[in-house]
Automatic annotation (TrEMBL):
It comes from the Eukaryota. The keyword Metal-binding applies. Its cofactor is heme. Keywords: Heme, Iron, Metal-binding, Monooxygenase, Oxidoreductase. Heme binds at C451. Belongs to the cytochrome P450 family. The keyword rRNA-binding does not apply. Pfam families: p450. This is Cytochrome protein. PANTHER family: CYTOCHROME P450, CYTOCHROME P450 MONOOXYGENASE STCB-RELATED. CDD domains: CYP_fungal (cd11059). GO terms for molecular function: heme binding; iron ion binding; monooxygenase activity; oxidoreductase activity, acting on paired donors, with incorporation or reduction of molecular oxygen. InterPro entries: Cyt_P450, Cyt_P450_CS, Cyt_P450_E_grp-I, Cyt_P450_sf, Cytochrome_P450_monoxygenase.
Length: 507
């Protein structure tokens, strides 16, 4: 009888076959037997993340989520380990304060090599940074210390729009709002404005900001390639790396400038923590004041790199979002004469020298803002979180620990069971909101990772709306330069932006 002998190539073949069988077995288990197998979704979802990646890369993930929820319901499987969820109850569970589901590693792909308050997935790191940044961004601190400086920028922006209209017949509100909010966040964060409004030019800085949306799309889709040395050889990724380097340079320069100012003025942070103190010293504190103080005196310190990384995300998160909100608000209001009339009359009746409190008390203005933040939430894309190791029940499905769940504000805000006639811009729907409406409305995210800039955002939006419609009560959307509704189509990489990157208005 012939004896069985295994050659080395036979052993390799056997091990390889075993590996493939094991992998296939795992895939089959996950697809047909594992806990996620009961969750509805497209046929390919249990097998691959490719479609998910494609829709993210082409800025369509928000529409994809809306379509899939319409077809499959509130919980949809979109990848071997990934789900979309779409109910106020699931959002409350995932984004709770007590035991929040942590952010997924997807956030670290945003800016590889960078860890900041926004993209960290480390709860301790997050708590430390949030503690230091939250109090300067509180409503009272913003109003007492920062408001006078903010208001001057709004006056300048409106005068620039007026000048355009007088000289060329129209103005680009998207451009001016972006310059405005960029100048504001520059000044509040680093003690000096970026002077976009004065310069009136789409300079490299703004181009980079806009480029960042595309860059982030690429990063999120191909994160591992983007952060590898391979990326240096691929043309798209080379540009991407340059953009990232420039962004770090802006942040570093801003921090350096701020440090120099602090040293030059020998700022006493205690004295300057009130408006009166700031007037006396002639120098105003910044949102990063506490960071410097922590660096100098506190037991817990922030490294120079941490400061730069937080500065970078402030530039990105704090400029685009309020300007996009203001742009879509003006566009939506100007397309609805009855809304425009009611809003313009309300803001026209404000007293001279009106305050933030006066603006908070305006009923219709705040309804319009709430409806704008529903339909045009500035960060409406999926917010991925990881189910804790013990697992969790979401909308009747048991999800094992480690599954990734995404709440998509774009879809949540268009759930017709909660918001009847969801595509209609209707501020009056917020006059008597149902509990479901209130629970499902989350333009600023939720839980411990809710937007830290929310009060600044509200101050900017209220001021912007009031100043704009007091100056231009009869503004209308222009058709010059080929401007059309197509320019305002929603493009969503992570933040929202108008497709044409412009919104031309006549008055
Ligand atoms: C209309 C304006 C704004 C909207 C709609 C908005 C929306 C959001 C959302 C949805 C999140 C949560 C993202 C997530 O869970 O992944 C967030 C976080 C954040 N936002 Fe905003 N934002 C706005 C304005 C601002 C401003 C003005 C700043 C500048 C200070 C800012 C800074 C941040 C930061 C630093 C975070 C991360 C917070 C953390 O993880 O603790 N945002 N924002």
């Amino acid at each position: 009888m012939e004896s069985l002998t295994l050659t080395s190539s036979g052993i390799v073949a056997l091990v390889a076959t075993g590996g493939v069988v094991l992998l296939l077995g795992q895939k089959l288990y996950k697809a047909y037997v594992g806990p996620l197998s009961k969750i509805p979704g497209p046929w390919y979802a249990p097998w691959t993340d490719l479609v998910n990646t494609y829709v993210a890369l082409t800025a369509q993930k928000h529409l994809y989520a809306l379509r899939l929820h319409g077809k499959y319901g509130p919980v949809v499987r979109i990848g071997p380990n990934e789900l979309l969820v779409n109910s106020a109850a699931s959002a409350a569970t995932i984004h709770q304060v007590k035991r929040p589901f942590p952010k997924s590693s997807w956030y670290r792909k945003f800016l590889p090599g960078v860890e900041n308050i926004f993209n960290t997935i480390n709860p301790e790191f997050h708590r430390r940074h949030r503690r230091l940044l939250a109090s300067p961004l509180s409503e009272s601190s913003l109003q007492t210390v920062f408001l006078p400086r903010i208001e001057a920028h709004f006056d300048l922006a409106i005068s620039k729009m007026r000048h355009d209209i007088n000289t060329q017949g129209y103005t680009d509100v998207a451009k001016w709002f972006l310059f405005l909010t960029t100048d504001v966040i520059g000044e509040l964060s680093f003690g000096d404005s970026f002077h976009m409004l004065e310069r009136n030019e789409l300079n490299q800085y703004i181009r980079d900001l806009q480029g960042h949306k595309v860059v982030r799309g690429l990063r999120l889709a191909f994160g591992s390639i983007a952060s590898s040395s391979l990326s240096g050889f691929l043309p798209g990724f080379r540009a991407l790396r340059k953009l990232n380097e420039r962004n770090r340079m802006y942040a570093t320069q801003s921090i350096e400038r701020q440090k120099a100012l602090v040293e030059k003025q020998q700022l006493d942070p205690e004295k300057a923590s009130s408006d009166a103190g700031a007037k006396a010293t002639g120098f105003y504190p910044t949102l990063f004041q506490k960071m410097y103080k922590a660096n100098d005196e506190d037991g817990e310190t922030l490294t120079a790199k941490e400061l730069v990384d937080d500065a970078g995300i402030f530039i990105i998160a704090g400029s685009d979002t309020p300007s996009t909100t203001l742009t879509f608000l003006v566009w939506a209001v100007c397309r609805h004469p009855e809304i425009q009339k009611a809003l313009a009359e309300e803001v026209a009746a404000l007293p001279e020298g009106y305050t933030q409190q006066d603006l908070k008390d305006l009923k219709f203005l705040n309804l319009v803002i709430q409806e704008t933040l529903r339909l045009y939430a500035a960060a409406p894309s999926a917010l991925p979180r990881v189910v804790p190791p013990s697992g969790a029940e979401i909308d009747g499905y048991w999800l094992p620990g480690g599954s990734v769940v995404n709440t998509t504000t774009y879809a949540l805000h268009r759930d017709e069971k909660v918001f009847p006639d969801p595509d209609k811009f209707n501020p009056w729907r917020w006059e008597n909101p149902t509990r479901e409406m209130k629970n499902a409305w989350m333009p600023f995210g939720g839980g411990t990772r809710t937007c830290v800039g929310i009060h600044l955002a509200y101050i900017e939006i209220r001021l912007g709306v009031a100043r704009f419609f007091r100056e231009f009560p009869h503004a209308k959307i222009s058709t010059r330069e080929g401007m059309s509704d197509d320019d305002m189509k929603e493009v969503v990489f992570f933040p929202l932006s108008p497709k044409g990157k412009r919104c031309l208005v006549e008055a």
